[in-house]
Specification:
Helix 1 runs antiparallel to helix 3. The chain has two domains: 132 residues, Hotdog Thioesterase (Thiol Ester Dehydrase, Chain A), CATH 3.10.129; 97 residues, Thiol Ester Dehydrase, Chain A (Roll), CATH 3.10.129. It is mainly β. It is built from four helices and twelve strands.
Length: 273
């Protein structure tokens, strides 16, 4: 008989006993100065990396991270990411990123985040949706088939995440091509495709430093549609949808292709300083 702190599951006739951990995990990150912009506050892209690293640490500690998934030809891929900040952490601050799983469906799971500075002040929140895929076929796989559905033990619907969930990023015919970017070595991650945060960095570089002297990023909402790979050209289309809001479509143009194909869409909401 198991205690409420242990779970037993059997895979290929091998029985494993795992100790259950807390549903919420918290991880500290130092805001180093070379990860900050001219205002001494962390780049949104690097903050996104902190959130994704926290997700990786949390899942690894609970038995469904990359160290377990990769040998069985499985991996997590990010489908949606929302980051909404009241204030951006400053250089040399130590921030704490808390993360937890809010829900699990057959092919997708939602994960939330809370960012706190060294004084315990809440800086902002994040929401994300992840899919699990087969690393060989690149097709979605049943999350519940991994470790006999262990992930269900970690669903937390009580910890608050008081920001709106990801919404559909709508773009009209007014979007215009404003920049094309060549993908290079440093854009590619361990999954062999263009890293999720690299899209954010390319998108936010569409505005110059003078814009950021007068505007802060309030919220970024990005939907990943298709994988892009090294050698693809990324075409960035922009449409202003409100005084303080812009939508960006990133489309990949592969070698030999006649037409670009959508890779992701993003909505950015700015706030005057």
């Amino acid at each position: 008989m198991t205690s409420r702190w242990q779970i037993i599951f059997t895979v290929k006739n091998t029985t494993t006993i795992m100790e259950l951990k807390s549903k919420v995990g918290s991880y500290d990150f130092l805001v180093e100065p070379f990860h900050c912009d001219f205002s001494h506050r962390v780049f949104m892209g690097h903050l996104g990396n902190n959130l994704l690293n926290a997700a990786d640490f949390h899942s690894n500690e609970r038995g469904y991270g990359m160290s377990y998934l990769n040998p069985i030809h499985r991996t997590w891929v990010l489908s949606r990411l929302v980051i909404e900040m009241e204030t951006m952490p400053e250089a040399y601050d130590t921030i704490s990123v808390s993360t937890w799983v809010e829900s699990v469906k057959r092919y997708f799971t939602s994960r939330n985040y809370a960012v706190t500075d060294s004084n315990g002040r809440r800086c902002g929140y994040g929401r994300s949706i992840w899919a699990m895929i087969d690393t060989v076929t690149r097709q979605p796989v049943d999350i519940m088939a991994v470790r006999d559905g262990l992930i269900m033990e970690y669903i937390d619907t009580e910890t608050p995440c008081p920001i709106e969930p990801p919404s559909r990023v709508k773009m009209g015919v007014g979007a215009r091509l404003v920049r094309s970017v060549e993908t290079r070595y440093s854009d590619v991650d361990v999954n062999g495709h263009i890293n999720s945060v690299k899209y954010i960095e390319h998108i936010l570089d569409l505005w110059d430093i003078e814009w950021y002297r007068h505007n802060d990023i309030r919220r970024i909402d990005i939907a990943y549609v298709a994988e892009a790979y090294i050698g693809d050209r990324l075409n960035l289309y922009v449409e202003q949808t409100a005084d303080d809001e812009y939508c960006v479509r990133v489309a990949k143009l592969s070698d030999g292709a006649e037409k670009d194909v959508e890779a992701c869409r993003c909505k950015i909401k700015f706030m005057k300083k």
